[in-house]
Design brief:
Blueprint lengths: L3 E7 L6 H11 L17 H6 L6 E8 L5 E8 L7 H8 L4 E7 L6 H12 L3 E7 L8 H10 L9 E2 L8 H11 L12 E10 L3 E10 L1 E3 L3 E4 L5 E3 L2 E6 L1 E5 L1 E3 L3 E5 L13 E4 L18 E7 L5 H14 L4 E7 L3 E8 L2 H14 L4 E3 L6 E5 L4 E4 L11 E16 L3 H10 L3 E9 L2 E9 H4 L3 H8 L5 E11 L2 E8 L2 E2 L5 E4 H18 L7 E7 L2 E8 L15 H21 L6 H8 L5
Helix pairs in contact: 12-14
């Protein structure tokens, strides 16, 4: 066990985590030059297309130390985006140390601090690594100063490297061997292994990723998950070496996978403890903190018959993404579906794309909303994340919405643009802190509902990509909230309703009406699109009717003949409007989510 090192790479977005993982894998000789590709641990197409890491991925590297001894490195590459910080916390629970990367050109940023605190909570060894030292804009002295002042870590202990060129890799390996402690645990004690990830393999069933804390595990053992009662016989154990590599036995301190013919996905819970059926551990290991979703949206199948397939796809997806929560939901406009909770808007997008790509689901998503609280006049409290459950306005005493504390790091020259953006989104109690010459940290208290749409995109635009953003939940505050309904020819479309602040209601309703006007197909009759608060119409847009030329066959002749035909058409259109039902295409639901800036 003294030759095993379990460590994770954490950093802000784009500071080079996946590139450093690539170099360590190449240096360890796990893959030859012919088979190598960039972002080798990012196995999903989505990760490669967007250039981001979405899932933490583990790999076991054989490394020869400076003393000539053979070491086993279990490396876990983690995402940097704030929406996937839950993946980071799960990875850290399986490690003894972290490499905290700092970009030599950009210095310490918002997520660098967030990841440092997460590593400190788990009491891990932290090795600061200054990356991208090969770039012309690299300012190593400034990065060292920020590590010392902002992170409170000894600057002389920082390792210099360039993940792109491979410079300084030997120092990184040496630092891991010398400064990350070997795992503690007793191989002879009863088996206790923590599940930190899982995915569904259509041929082998559920593949479970585990970190063994105590005991040993081999094929043929009868295992039990401590959260449930089901028992399974182990078919295969092994290590993650880019591909799954079977081994004879896993023992305490190791990270690997278990295949035990688990067919029902619901039996596996991330954070659960695996033990042996005949010699169980006395107590389960500490799991992970339950994550609380902040953004809610409903998912419906395009065809109502596909509901069972969508239910099965979500069950399998949940295995690989423990942060997703969902429950059954129904809508008059869209039929049966699921109300889902996400960690942010990027998480929502990724779930939508993965369901479509990996599980072949055609889905419609409703406008995202957050969780509101309502205090009624009779004293009861309601918590609502779906606008369809909005209580009767007459019975509401107080409406509360969630607030966050946003921390924005930006170069000094963009302060004005960032302040304007935050104040436009009802930001308050702003504070400013100069972290280093030319760099400012701005703190705001903002309503979460104003952030979930496009705040991050707008921030990147106004700061030309240099702004970084991190947030934490604060509390609930009393606000003047109203429900905006969308009516098509007087009929309410429940899936398009939103809860907004009264000051924003008209602007939001106008925007939605204009978007729908662009998306809805024209009919033989006029379509009135209206935004309403209760019975009061606050916005309107009209799609004009097609004018069918009923006088085409009248060549010249008496004008009264033409007038008679036009009058007849007018009567027919009136009747049509009374019975006219409008089909809302899938693109219309998506269009409503877009804002003016898109």
């Amino acid at each position: 066990m003294d030759r095993i090192r379990n460590f994770s790479i954490v950093a802000h977005i784009d500071h080079g985590k996946s590139t450093l993982a690539d170099r360590l894998i190449q240096e360890a000789g796990l893959v030859d030059a012919r088979q190598f590709r960039d972002q080798i641990l990012d196995s999903m197409d989505l990760e490669r297309e967007r250039g981001i890491t979405i899932k933490s991925s583990a790999v076991t590297l054989p490394v020869t130390g400076p003393d000539g001894r053979q070491y086993e490195f279990n490396l876990i590459d983690t995402p940097g985006h704030v929406d996937f910080s839950y993946e980071v916390s799960r990875a850290l629970a399986s490690c003894e140390g972290v490499l905290l990367l700092v970009d030599a050109t950009q210095g310490v940023e918002a997520q660098t601090l967030a990841n440092l605190y997460a590593a400190m909570e788990q009491d891990l060894a932290i090795i600061p690594v200054i990356n991208k030292i090969d770039l012309a804009a690299a300012d190593i002295d400034s990065a060292r100063e920020q590590i010392d002042r902002d992170l409170g870590l000894p600057a002389d202990g920082a390792v210099l490297c360039s993940a792109k060129t491979g410079q300084g890799l030997a120092e990184v390996f040496r630092a891991v061997i010398e400064r990350v402690p070997p795992p503690l645990g007793d191989p002879e004690a009863p088996l206790a292994a923590r599940i930190f990830d899982a995915h569904y393999d259509p041929f082998r069933g559920t593949v479970v990723a585990v970190r063994l804390v105590h005991g040993r595990l081999k094929a043929g053992d009868l295992i039990r998950f401590m959260a449930g009662t089901a028992e399974h016989k182990v078919e295969e154990v092994g290590l993650f070496r880019l591909n799954r590599e079977p081994v004879r036995e896993l023992s305490a301190g190791m990270v690997g996978y278990v295949i035990a013919g688990i067919k029902t996905v619901s039996e596996v819970a991330i954070g659960d403890t695996v033990t042996l059926a005949e010699r169980p551990a006395a107590l389960p290991l500490g799991g992970f903190k339950a994550v609380l979703p902040v953004v809610f949206s409903s998912i419906y199948p395009v065809a109502a018959d596909d509901f069972p397939a969508l239910a099965e796809a979500l069950e399998k997806y949940k295995l690989n993404d423990a942060a997703l929560v969902f429950q059954k939901d129904s809508s008059a406009a869209l039929g049966l579906g699921f109300r889902c909770g996400f960690l942010g808007l990027l998480h929502l997008e990724i779930v939508q794309e993965r369901l479509e790509r990996e599980f072949d689901q055609s889905i419609v998503m409703t406008a995202p909303s957050v969780r509101y609280r309502f205090v009624l006049k009779d004293g009861t409290e309601l918590t609502i994340d779906n606008p369809q459950d909005y209580p009767d306005p007459i019975s509401i005493a107080d409406a509360l919405e969630p607030y966050i504390r946003a921390s924005i790091m930006t170069p000094e020259r963009y302060i004005g643009a960032v302040m304007k953006l935050a104040l436009d989104r009802r930001g308050e109690n702003s504070r400013m802190n100069y972290t280093s010459p030319g760099r400012v940290e701005l703190a705001f208290e903002l309503p979460l509902a104003e952030v979930i749409y496009d705040f991050y995109d707008r921030l990147k635009t106004v700061t030309q990509g240099y702004g970084s953003f991190n947030y934490e939940m604060l509390d609930y505050r009393i606000q003047d909230l109203v429900k905006v309904d969308i009516l098509l020819n007087g009929e309410k479309v429940d899936a398009l309703s939103v809860i907004v602040h009264r000051d924003r209601a008209r602007a939001r309703a106008l925007n939605m009406c204009e978007r729908l006007k662009e998306e809805l197909p024209r009919q033989q009759f006029k379509i009135a699109i209206q935004g309403a608060i209760g019975g009061q119409i606050i916005a309107r847009s009209t799609i004009s009717a097609f004018r069918k030329d009923v006088t085409a066959k009248c060549y010249g002749g008496d004008i009264t003949r033409k007038r008679k035909l036009l009058e007849k058409q007018k009567k027919g259109k009136k009747r049509m409007k009374m019975v006219g039902q409008i089909e809302v295409p899938q693109s219309a639901f998506v269009a409503v989510l877009r804002t003016d800036g898109d």
